[in-house]
Amino acid sequence: MDKIYYSNQFPHLKLEREEISFRNGFKHVARLIELYRGPFKDSQIPVPAINRKVLILVQTENQRNALIPLVKRFGNEVQLLDLRAESSETKPTQEQLQYLALLHSWNMLLSFFTVRGNDRIIYRKRFYNLHTVLGYYEYAKKLITQKNTPLKLVIASNDHSGISISVFLACNSCKLESLYVQHASVNQGVTPLIMTYAFLDGKDAQDKYHNAGSSNTKISLTGIMKLDPYLALPAIKELGKYVSVGISTYFCDIDKNFNLCQELESRNIPFIVRFHPNVPPHIREKFAAHSWKISDNRETALDHILNTKAVISGDSTILLEAIMLYRRPVYFASEGVVNDFYHYLKNGLIDKAYTDIEELVNGLEQDFDMNLHRKKAKYYNDALYSDYEGQSVERTAELILKIMVEK
C-alpha cells in the first residue's frame, strides 16, 4: 500500500518530538488493543451495490456542491455515493472502520517504532486516527471489487483526506481508474497526485502539484463547475446590499471580528455574518445575541456572495469565489499575521491585507478596480476570460466521455 501520511501536509501544526522508548511504545500498544475491543462485535459491513460504470463519491457538503453538477449532467449514467454525516445508511461506523483496519494492525505497530524523521512525529500524533484511513481503504476495496459490477471509473474531489485518499489508493491497488476533481483552492503543502486523472481548476493548482513531486497523473484544466449557473445570470454584476463578515476557527480572531461587526454597526454599514460550518454554537450565539443579520446555514456560499457587495474574510477560498462573482474580496488578517495562505494577495486578486479594523472599514469606501483584480483570478480558474467561461460542466463532461470511450 502507498504511503498515506506526509509531513508537509500539516504545515500549520506545531509538533513536539515524543520521547522514543519501549515503555512509551508498550503504552500505545495497550491503548490500541483497548481501542479494538469493540469492533469484533460489529463486523458486518454493509456495502451498497454499484451498478453504474461511473461512481461519484462525496463526504462533505463542499464536495457534494463541487460534484453535483456532474450528477445532474449525466443523470442515471452515474451513481452518487453520499457519505456525509447525515447519510448514516451508507456511511460505515467508526467501529466498522476499526474492524476493517485490523488487517493493518501489525504494520501500524511496526511503523510506530521504525518510521524516522518528521514523518515519525506526524505518524505518532495521528496514530489513533489511522484506523479511519485504513478502514476506509478496506471499505473502498470491498466497494469497487463487487462481483458483476460494471464500474470503470471512480470520481472524488478531495486528494488528501477523508475517504477520498483511501479510495484513490484502493483504485490503484485494484487496477481501476480514478479521477480527482478539485473542489477548493490548494496550498503549498499539497502532496503528489496519485490518481489516474486530475481535473484542476487552473494553473495555480497545476503548478503547486507539479512542485509537490513526481506523479503519473494525467492533468487537465477545466475551471470551476459550480460557478457555471452563476456566471450565466444576467444580473451577475448587480451588487447586493450587505458587506459579508466571514467567521471561522481557522486564521480568524473571533474577538477582533466581533469588534469589526460593532464598528460596521456604529457606522450604519449594512452587514451580514457568515459562519463556517466548523464554528461551534457558543461562538454563533455570541454574534446572534446582538440581533445582527446572520446568513442562513442552508444557503450556499455562492448564493450568499450574490447578496453582498463585499466579502470580508481571513485566509479562505470565499475570497476567490467573491471576485469571480464580481464582489470585492477584503482580506482581514485578524490574527495580526498576513499568511496569504493561497497567495491571493501575492498574485493580485486582492489589493491589500488588513490587520486594523478602522483601516479596513475606511478601505471599504475606497475605489477597487474589479476588472484588474478579477483578471488575476484566471490563474486559479482557467475558464475565466476563455471560450468556455460558464461552460466548465460541459468541458468536464466531454473529458469524462473521452476517458470512457478510450476504455
TrEMBL record:
<dbReference type="InterPro" id="IPR043148">
    <property type="entry name" value="TagF_C"/>
</dbReference>
<protein>
    <recommendedName>
        <fullName>CDP-glycerol glycerophosphotransferase family protein</fullName>
    </recommendedName>
</protein>
